[in-house]
Structures are given as C-alpha cells and as structure tokens.
Specification:
The complex is a heterodimer of chains A (about 325) and B (about 500). Chain A is mainly alpha-helical and about 325 residues long. Chain A is built from 12 helices and no strands. Chain B has 3 domains: about 50-60 and about 285-500, MetI-like fold; about 95-155, no CATH class; about 160-270, no CATH class. Chain B is built from 16 helices and 9 strands. In chain B, the strands form 3 sheets. In chain B, strands 5, 6, 7 and 8 form a 4-stranded antiparallel β-sheet that branches. In chain B, strands 2-4-3 form a 3-stranded antiparallel β-sheet. Classes of the chains: A mainly alpha (about 325), B alpha+beta (about 500). The interface of A and B includes residues 29, 30, 138, 259 and 293 of A.
Chain lengths: ~325, ~500
C-alpha cells in the first residue's frame, strides 16, 4: 500500500512538472506587455528579465525559473498589477480569504450534505426522499452564479441581512468579516451539499439492500444498529475520500463566487493577472491550480486504499 | 464417402403433409432503440423535461426573429430598463409596465413627476405604495413631512432630454412630426429663467433656487418657456404644444447646430419607427434581453453540440484504441490523457485565447480549448466498454472468421457500447454550456463581437446592477437554470432508458 502511495506521488510530481513546463513555455512565448516608461520599477523589471534569461532558449529559461523557485522561493516579480512586488508575497496575501471562505463552507456542508443523503436513503420512495432528490438534482444542474445571484438578491438586497460584497481589510476572524462572508459561503455550499447528498444517498441505498444487511438483521440487530454499524461504515468508504478531495479543493475556491462577492482571493488575482497580462502572476496561479487538482485526485485515490483494506490497489488486477 | 453424391430424388420434406402446431409469433419484434424509447416515455419527469427543453430550443431559434430588435440595436438612454410593453402597461395589470420602485420620495419629487405628466402627457407615476408621516425638529419647530413610496414608469420618467441636432436633422424631425402628429420637440426653456439650473431638462416651470417648483395660487405650475425669438436656432414650422400662444421657441442656437428639448420616448419612436417594447427589459448596453437570451442560447447550444460531437469522435476512437489493444499502448495513451486532464480548464482557455485568438479567431480558439481536454472522459468511458466486450465470444467468433482489427472495433464492439456513449453525450452538452457560460461570464473569453452576446455576458452585465435592475440577471438566470435542469433530466432519462440496469444510480 505504501509502495503504491509513493509510486503515485512520484508519478503525480512528474505529471505536474510536465504540465508546468508546457504552460511555462506557452506563457513565455507570449509577447511581453510594454512597461510604463517613467515608473521607478521599470528598470528593476528590465534587469530581472535579463537575469531570468528572457532572450535564451525556453528550456534554459525553465531551468532558471525552477532554480529560482527551489532555492529562493522566487517566483518572479509582478510586472503589471503590483509593479515590482514579488509574486509569492502577493499570492500569500490573497490566499487567506479564499481559504477561510471555503473552510467555512466545507465545515457545514459535510454534515448537512451527508445527513440529508442518509435521510433520503433511509426514507427511500417517500415524499422526503423525492423532495431531497429533486432539490439535489436541481441544485447540481444549475450553475453556481444563478444561486449566487439569488442569495445576493434575496438575502443581501431585499432582506438586507448581509452586506452585498465582502468587507475589505485583513481582520479575517472578526464578527463583521464573518457576517460579510456568509453570502459567499452560502452560494459556495449549495453545490457541495447537493454533491455529498447525492453520493451518500446512492451509496447507502445500495449498501442497505446488500445481503450482509439481511444477515445483520437476522442475527438480531435492530434496524438502527444494523444501519449505523454496518451500512454507514460501508458507505463511508466512498464518501470519505470525497471529503478529502473537497478539503484540498477548498484552496482553489471558485473563480465565479469570488468575482460575484468581491472576495480579495486567488481567483480574483488570477482574473486580474489574465486581464492585465501579468504573466508571472499567471504562471504562479497556473501551477497552484494544477497542483491542487492533482493533489486532490491523488489523495482521493490513496485514501481509498487506506480506508478500505479490501481495495488493494497497485496489486496485479 | 457414400454420402458425397446423393441423387436429388432421395431427398424429401420431413413435414410435407403434417400440421404444424407451433404458434406463429403474434407480437411484433422491437428494436433496441424502440425499446429504449418506450422506457423513456414511461419516465414522466424526463418527458416533461424534454418538452420544456424543446420549448427552450424553439425559443432560442425564434426569439431573435420575432423580437422587433436586432442584437446590434443598442440604445444609449434605455439602459437596464425594466420590461415594458405599452399595450400591456395601459391595462394596468402591474406587469410589463416598466415599473421601478422608489422609496421615500418627498412632496417636491412628487411634484416633479406631476410636471412631467402635465408637459408630456405621459404620467410616470404608476401607483403609490405607501405614505409615511415623519416629524422632524428644525430650529425648534416641529416640521411634518410626508414621504411616499411609489412605483414609476422608467420609460416615462426619463421625460425630456437635451439633444443637439444638425439643421437637416432638425428639419427631418419636424417633417416626421407633421406626418405622424407626434410631438418630439418641446419648447425650449432658457436656463436663465429657471435660476440657472442646468442638467435638468425636465424643468419647464418656475422654480426656486433649489429647483423645487413654485406654484401659483391655484396650485398649478407656472410655465417659463422661452419666447425670445432671437435665441432660436432654426425656423420651426411644426407641431406646437396646446398651451403655446404661438411665440415659444423650439430650438436654441448653437454654432452650426441647434439644441432642443426632446421627449425621449417620442424621439425613440422617430428613430426606431416604433414604441419601445422590451419584453424582458434592456441590459447595460441597451440591448433587448428577450432577443439577447435567444441569440446567446442559440450560440451556446450550437457550440455545445459541435464540441460534443468532436469530443465524442476523438474520445471514441482514442478509447477504442486504448481498450482494444490494451497493454503498452493503453499505458502510453493513458499517460497523455493524464497530463492533459491535469491542466486546469481555465488555464487552457486563457492560453488558447492569448495565442490563437488573433490568428484563427476567438471562437475557433475557444473550440480548441474545449477539444483539447474534453474528449478524455469520453475516451475513458469507451475504453471501459471495450475492456468489457473484447473478451466475449462474439468477438472471438468474428476474429475467427478473419475480421480485421478495425472491423472488430467499429462493427462488432462499438455498436454494443453505443447506448452508453449516446447517453453520456446527452450529459456532456449541458456541461459544455455551463463551462462556456462560466468563461464568458468571467470575461476570459469575449464572444460579443462574434455572437452578439452570450448568456454568460448577459449574466455578468446583469450582476453589476443586481440591486438597481434585477430583471437584467433574472431572466438569463431563469433561462440558463431551466436549460441545465431540463438537459440533465433528459440525459438521465436517456441513460435509464438505454441502460435499464443502472436505473436510479447516479453517475
């Protein structure tokens, strides 16, 4: 199992490097935007470009880039957005809001989503199940900006419970900040709740009809006991890796929700970098999003093996 | 050996004169697709979804045709205006009346609305929702103020604007007025007569320094139209307002042109040849949203179908090769799809836009971005199906008969997998529409020059004015939401119909 995990990790790192190389070359191939002529940072940026080997072959540039990243955590300077500031510094500044909003959303979506899923599975083919399943279907189908709009219009504008957009400042854990984050958290949560609910319901329905459940009942367990001890445990084999994946995914956040609620996060930074052609920032976000996607799928894969000893991955099929 | 040459007369029929007791088959045989269709039509929610979907598709095709507007018709004044159709508005049903709610309007504001109604004959005030009495202390005195919550017609509320015309344009408007009997140009008011207030073209009455109306003893407005003929910019031989004694001037001379007070509603009729009728209001560019949704949806759907069919083909061939040959080829191809699927879609789209948009155009580069990673899911699905079928007896039989690899893949195995593949195609289309909408919403791809507008663009324009003009995002949202739900229900129904074994199991 551990051998498998190590092999998967190494493979993931290799894939990550190939993707980074591809994106890096493609980004460096773009014509550089002109720098403002009379800005004090222009000269610094010019010198930096020289040092980073902008006129050398792309592979050499990539080597210089990697050396900078690994030895000095140097991701280059922002050229357009925050002229002359190191990209990493800007990036770390933008990470907290994205993470906090997503953390809040994940904290309450897991219990609610799984709870609703269990409820629907246990009351299968009753009106409760139909209501939950229909709502789940609707929420999963509708893109997030539609219910972001509904949240914003109903709760923020009509009822005036929350501010329309997120509060500025860096006091991430103050009550006012929490209140201003609620609409974004809500808009982010619907989809995740629906996703968890659907997976849980599908898994639990299947487990409940399996033969070992009948055996558990036959040996004298009540329905509740059998469900908690046998059915839930088995359906968590599928759900828990999903939760892990979701936890990694919170780093990435949602570009759309961040735009709608003006969250000063990574998504907004990426969009701004694209629009103002700040390529150093864009390389950093590309690496970031790629890494998150890869790590999430890796964690899901590996956690399957650790949670369920029956699944022996990496062994011969 | 002795059987090799049997003379023909030795043969005879076994049952020549006997009664056959087998019953002939009474029922008709049903093909796989007919069977699936029967199962599909038993699924009520999918059938309803299919009808709604059909309606939405018809809407997308027909709306741009039946809308009186073109997507290139932009209006500079009617921006983010609510839905309005004159004929329905006149019925007073509370729908399509261009209503905007205004809170806490003072007495003076109410007078200003009345003044517009009196001058133009179009009453902006639709209804009073509520009145509030407030008591304020001002310099030791208690002052009672009444404020009103009202709904006003946004189109009438605009009233009169200043507009500068060339002499010939001015002539044309006069001629149009004479032909149609509709007053576009209203008598000029000199800013000197209204305490030098500028930027409020709706004032035609005597005002105090703050611009509040000064009424006469009967509570009527006192007109202050300009009568100084020397200020007139050009000769005016057209309709005059009923209260005009004949000496009001209708234009104000500017160098080489004339400035007029123009009733925008009627000016709009002069320019467009019709009254404004926006079934779903206008957006931030002054486009008709009813038409915009149709234009955007038409693009999205055609684009999604195109993308899905390309991805389906690539994915099917790729997956077929992977699944059929297996082993090292499978491994190598799997690594390629692993790498491609690791690149975030947003990054792919951006890079393709930056690199290719200038060379091959925005839409093709957007299409390439979808094609680059979109086929991977399809390939995985086909590969799985091929692994399932390639070891089965019918494949072996065909191989024994000498069928080539290609024939085995596409004539024998592929038709068995086609049900799964078709149904997943129905679920790919909404996915493509959703990603396309997100990308245009975020502004990473701007398709307005090609398609006129897209649902994503409409949503993003609407989102900027969510508080002042909720209709601008409401209608695109409803449309997109319905489209997605119906496509998914339709796709789920298809999947259940084609693979009855997986009924009710999502994913």
């Amino acid at each position: 199992m551990i051998k498998y995990a190590i092999r998967r990790t190494l493979y993931m790192i290799l894939v990550f490097f190939i993707i980074t190389l591809m994106c890096f070359v493609l980004i460096r191939m773009l014509p550089l935007p002109a720098l403002p002529p009379d800005d004090i940072h222009t000269e610094v940026i010019q010198l930096r470009r020289e040092a980073l080997g902008y006129n050398k072959p792309y592979l050499e540039q990539f080597a210089i880039f990697l050396r900078g990243v690994f030895t000095k955590f140097d991701w280059g300077l922002s050229e357009q957005l925050y002229t002359g500031r190191p990209v990493l510094e800007i990036f770390l500044e933008k990470l907290p809001p994205t993470m906090i909003v997503n953390l809040y959303s994940i904290l309450w979506t897991i219990p609610v989503g799984i709870g609703l899923g269990i409820l629907a599975a246990l009351m299968k083919n009753t009106w409760v199940d139909y209501t939950i399943s229909t709502l789940t279907m609707v929420v999963i189908s509708v893109p997030s900006f539609v219910y972001a709009f509904l949240v914003q219009y109903i709760f923020c504008f009509r009822l005036r419970w929350f501010p329309l957009i997120m509060k500025g400042g860096t006091d991430w854990f103050s009550p006012a900040m929490f209140k201003s984050m609620i609409p974004a958290v809500m808009a982010l949560s619907f989809g995740v709740i629906a996703g968890f609910c659907r997976t849980t319901r599908a898994e639990l329905t299947e487990v409940l009809t399996s033969e070992f459940m009948l055996l558990a009942r036959t040996k004298g367990l009540t329905k509740t006991q059998a469900t908690i001890r046998h059915a839930l445990r088995n359906c968590f084999v599928v759900i828990v890796p999903g939760i892990f994946g979701e936890f990694i995914g919170i780093l990435g956040g949602s570009l759309i929700i961040e735009k709608i609620f003006s969250i000063p996060g990574v998504g907004g930074l990426t969009l701004a970098a694209i629009n103002s052609q700040d390529y150093n920032v864009f390389i950093m976000s590309t690496c970031f999003y790629t890494a998150i996607g890869l790590v999430a799928s890796l964690v899901v894969d590996i956690s399957y093996g650790f949670i369920d000893p029956r699944i022996r991955m990496g062994s011969k099929k | 050996m002795e059987y090799e040459k049997i003379p023909a007369e030795e043969f005879r029929f076994v049952q020549e004169n006997e009664i056959i007791r087998d019953k002939e088959l009474q029922t008709k045989s049903r093909s796989f697709f007919a069977d699936a269709l029967v199962r599909f039509s038993k699924n009520k929610s999918s059938v309803i979804a299919t009808w709604i979907l059909a309606f939405l598709l018809v809407y997308a095709l027909v709306a741009p045709l039946i809308s009186p507007y073109n997507i290139r018709d932009l209006d500079t004044i009617y921006i983010n205006y609510p839905p309005f159709v004159r004929k329905v508005a006149d019925l007073g049903l509370g729908i399509l009346d261009g209503a905007t709610s205004l809170d806490s309007q003072s007495e003076n504001a109410m007078l200003a609305w009345r003044a517009i109604a009196e001058e133009t004959g179009m009453d902006p005030l639709i209804r009073v929702l509520g009145t509030h009495e407030t008591e304020t202390k001002n310099k030791g005195q208690t002052v009672y103020r009444t404020t009103y919550d009202i709904e006003v017609n946004s189109y009438y509320r605009k009233g009169i604007i200043y507009k500068t015309f060339s002499y010939s344009e001015f002539e044309n408007i006069q001629q149009w007025q004479n032909e149609n009997g509709i007053q576009v140009i209203y008598p000029y008011v000199d800013t000197k007569d209204i305490n030098g207030i500028t930027g409020r073209p709706n004032i035609w009455y005597q005002v105090d320094k703050k611009g509040n109306p000064v009424l006469d003893d009967n509570g009527e407005f006192i007109p202050v139209y300009c009568t100084n003929a020397s200020k007139a910019g050009a000769e005016y031989n057209s309709l005059r307002i009923p209260s005009d004694p004949g000496n009001y001037i209708y234009s104000y001379g500017k160098s080489g042109s004339v400035q007029c007070r123009v009733l925008y509603y009627n000016y709009y009729r002069y320019v467009n040849g019709m009254e404004p009728s926006y079934l779903m209001g206008t957006n931030a560019l002054g486009q008709d949203i009813f038409c915009g949704i149709g234009v955007g949806a038409r693009f999205s759907i055609i684009f999604a179908i195109l993308v899905s069919s390309i991805n389906l083909t690539i994915g099917a061939v790729y997956g077929a090769i992977q699944g059929y040959y297996g082993g090292a080829i499978d491994m190598a191809l799997d690594r390629i799809s692993d790498i491609l699927s690791g690149v975030p879609f947003m990054v792919v789209t951006t890079l393709f836009q930056l690199h290719l948009a200038k060379k091959v155009g925005i839409v093709p580069s957007f299409l390439f971005a979808f094609v680059l990673t979109g086929w991977i899911g399809m390939a995985a699905l086909t590969r799985k199906q091929f692994y399932r079928f390639k070891g089965q007896e019918f494949v072996m039989a065909a191989r024994t008969l000498g069928a080539s690899d290609r024939r085995l893949m596409f004539k024998h195995i592929f038709p068995n997998a086609i049900g799964t593949i078709i149904t997943s195609c129905a679920l790919i289309i909404p996915g493509v529409i959703s990603s396309e909408t997100s990308m245009t919403y975020l502004g990473i791809v701007d398709l307005s020059s090609f398609a006129g507008t897209t649902i994503g663009t409409l949503l993003s324009q609407g989102n900027a004015v969510v508080t002042s003009a909720p209709h601008a995002i409401l209608y695109p949202s409803i449309f997109l939401g319905l489209l997605m739900i119906c496509f998914n229900l339709f796709g789920n129904g298809l999947r259940d119909a084609f693979n009855p074994s997986t009924r009710g199991v999502d994913d």
